[in-house]
Model the fold of this input.
Amino acid sequence: MFFRILEMHSVDKKKNPSARATCLNCMDGRVQLPVLNWIHEQYGIDCVDIITEAGMDGVLALQDNIDEIIRSIKISIDINKSERIFIVGHYDCRGNSVDEKAHREHIIKSAKRLRTHWPKIEVIGLWVDDQWRPDICYKSLKLELKTEG
Done:
């Protein structure tokens, strides 16, 4: 796995050379590389700001106070110029011990919650299955700014 990380920095960056993303993921180490590799392969993004919590999808969907997570996302978007947010839930999560259906509901609720803060940023929800394969379960439309003139 270590060699795969090194490879990510030496690939042809024609797809999205300066793109950056924010990934709100579980702290579980088993899910980190499959998600990062998937983001790189699907979007050509090498630089991903990772914000973790145990059972992140449940935290975002169910907790009232997510101020610290919002603060980290603001830094990623406003300072690091992240263009997308990924929210991840996964199989066998010990921080959010619910079934797949509930995870998918939490991911969608989390994505919609974050869209209220960043309506112009694309938000993508990912479910990671028991084979550690990410699958899109939510994708927002990216709103474009219209200028008058």
Notes: The chain has five helices and five strands. Residues 104 and 110 are 10 Å apart (CA to CA).
